[in-house]
């Protein structure tokens, strides 16, 4: 039996049928072509592959989509073909072919800078007029039963309140605490910025704030950096609590009041003063920083003028800090814009059902689509035309979750079997147990099962711990 490639004969036939030199872009190259022993025209020792016929398309598919090539990038693919084949504009055509490959659009990682410039929030005008809030959960339970902290921060003065709560508190209980701790001290704010926690997204909380006349501004979908101030404050608070536990011991609840005092009485770089000084006009005295001198008496008009001057100074410092942070962040980002009607791929992520092993997510598709852009929302968000399978997902996405594609609109990744949640995650589910075995370790034996998975690219069979699979998916047994 002899195995012969049909590609040389196909190229020879296409070369004979290629008559239009202008369409082949061969004007000026014809005299340089040399016919080899097989009757195939070559250019500098490389086979000329004409545009006419199916030889060029077949060659690109063989070098990219087959099992012995497995979707290389445009650079690797070009240098693989370059020693043997040639045509005018070969590198450009290879790049376009890779850009139009639907499989590459699904699975290839993006090695460019994150898309979208930073869009800072407007600087507030009044103290405790605009606030942010978030929760720290899963803390060790204290003797009083607290296991979470409610962090509430003023965006202008940066002063914060750290309120111990329980994670299972109902929204009505949180509303009562909010009235007692915040409204009683600082009045009713005009807006509250928070993430999309179920408690903040509940109908009761929304109606409660609407009754107060407060706008509940939730973070942009799939873009939690909207509430970055709370996240950064939480990081500082956790570090301070860890330090207190290491140095002084005891429960974190015992240290929380003094941690709040220390945070509010410490210099803040954005406003260039302590939050207490920005809020009350002077920093609080401590045993380290005290003075016997009395405060300078001020008349009423002088107090108003000094307060107004300090607020203007704080707002100016915040503008400078925002501009500095925006310039620093934008150097690591890339501007990307789309037009209405463009086709884009949408980024998704697998939701791992198994935590211990959990390797299947690395071989799952990264993007789905393509989808058409219907409208531009703001500077860095776009509204997409989603199919009926994704009707439960909000159709406005940040530009960092999109990837431009030149692929044909008629071809689309099938979504009939993939169930995505509101956060664009799909869970990998097992289909059946194929095999069992026992792995003997030094002191014990571990039962393993061979599981076949659904919604999985690459090898869809993995070995998992039998005990864990049995607890999570008992229907397989």
Protein traits:
12 helices, 477 residues, alpha+beta
Explain this structure:
There is one protein chain. This protein is α+β, with helices and mostly antiparallel strands and 477 residues long. It is built from twelve helices and 19 strands. It has a five-stranded mixed beta sheet. A hairpin with a 2-residue loop joins strand 2 and strand 3. The longest helix has 31 residues. It starts with 6 loop residues before the first helix and ends in a 5-residue tail after the last helix. About 3% of the residues have low confidence.
- For the report, how would you describe the main beta sheet? 5 strands, mixed
* Poorly predicted regions: 351-363
Number of helical stretches of at least 4 residues = 12
Secondary-structure class:
alpha+beta
Which radius of gyration do the C-alpha atoms yield? 32 Å
Compute the number of strand runs: 19
The termini sit apart by 49 Å
> How are the strands of the biggest sheet laid out side by side?
7-6-5-8-9
Please state the overall shape, judged from the principal axes of the Cα atoms: elongated
Indicate the percent of residues in helices: 25-40%
What's the mean pLDDT score? 80
Strand content: 15-25%
Chain-wise SSE layout:
Blueprint: H1 7-17, E1 34-35, E2 41-43, E3 46-48, H2 55-64, H3 74-81, E4 85-86, H4 90-99, H5 102-107, E5 130-136, E6 148-154, E7 160-165, H6 171-186, E8 191-194, H7 203-212, E9 215-218, H8 228-248, H9 252-264, H10 275-280, H11 300-330, E10 343-347, E11 349-351, E12 367-377, E13 381-385, E14 396-398, E15 402-404, E16 425-427, E17 430-440, E18 445-453, E19 461-465, H12 466-472
Parallel strand pairs: 3-4, 5-8, 8-9, 11-16
Antiparallel strand pairs: 1-2, 2-3, 5-6, 6-7, 10-12, 10-15, 12-13, 13-14, 17-18, 18-19
């Amino acid at each position: 039996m002899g195995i012969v490639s049909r590609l040389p004969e196909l190229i020879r036939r296409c070369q004979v049928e290629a008559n239009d030199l202008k369409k082949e872009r061969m004007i000026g190259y014809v005299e340089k072509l040399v016919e080899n022993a097989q009757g195939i025209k070559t250019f500098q020792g490389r086979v000329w592959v004409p545009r006419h016929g199916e030889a060029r398309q077949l060659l690109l598919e063989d070098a990219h989509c087959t099992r012995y090539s497995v979707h290389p990038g445009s650079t690797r693919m070009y240098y693989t073909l370059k020693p043997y084949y040639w045509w005018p504009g070969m590198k450009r055509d290879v790049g376009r072919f890779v850009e139009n490959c639907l499989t590459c659009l699904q699975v290839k990682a993006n090695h460019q800078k994150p898309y979208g410039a930073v869009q800072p929030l407007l600087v507030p005008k009044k103290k405790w007029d605009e606030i942010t809030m978030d929760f720290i959960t899963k803390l060790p339970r204290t003797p009083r039963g607290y296991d979470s902290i409610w962090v509430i921060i003023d965006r202008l003065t940066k002063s914060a309140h750290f309120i111990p709560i329980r994670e299972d508190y109902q929204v009505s209980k949180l509303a009562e605490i909010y009235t007692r701790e915040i409204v009683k001290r600082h009045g009713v704010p005009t807006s509250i910025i928070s993430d999309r926690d179920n408690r903040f997204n509940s109908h009761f909380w929304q109606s409660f704030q609407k009754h107060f006349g407060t706008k509940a501004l939730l973070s942009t979908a799939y873009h939690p950096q909207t509430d970055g101030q709370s996240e950064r404050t939480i990081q500082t608070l956790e570090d301070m609590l860890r330090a207190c536990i290491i140095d002084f011991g005891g429960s974190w609840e015992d240290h929380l009041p003094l941690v709040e005092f220390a945070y509010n009485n410490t210099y803040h770089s954005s406003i260039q003063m302590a939050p207490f000084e920005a809020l009350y006009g002077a920093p609080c005295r401590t045993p380290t920083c005290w003075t016997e001198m009395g405060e300078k008496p001020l008349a009423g008009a002088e107090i108003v003028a000094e307060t107004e001057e300090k607020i203007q100074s704080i707002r100016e410092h915040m503008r400078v800090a925002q501009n500095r942070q925006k310039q620093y962040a934008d150097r690591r980002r890339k501007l990307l814009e789309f037009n209405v009607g463009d086709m884009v791929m949408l980024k998704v992520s697998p939701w791992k059902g198994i935590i211990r092993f959990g390797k299947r997510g690395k071989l799952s598709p990264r993007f789905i689509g393509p989808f058409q852009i219907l409208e531009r929302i703001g500077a860095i968000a776009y509204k997409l035309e989603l199919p009926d399978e994704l009707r439960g997902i909000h159709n406005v996405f940040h530009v960092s979750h999109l990837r431009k594609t030149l692929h044909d609109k008629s071809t689309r990744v099938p979504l009939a079997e993939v169930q995505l949640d509101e956060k664009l995650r799909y869970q990998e589910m097992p289909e059946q147990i194929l095999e069992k075995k026992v792995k003997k370790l030094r002191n014990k034996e571990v039962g393993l099962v061979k599981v076949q998975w659904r919604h999985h690219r690459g090898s869809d069979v993995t070995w998992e711990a039998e005990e864990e699979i049995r607890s999570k998916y008992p229907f397989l047994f």
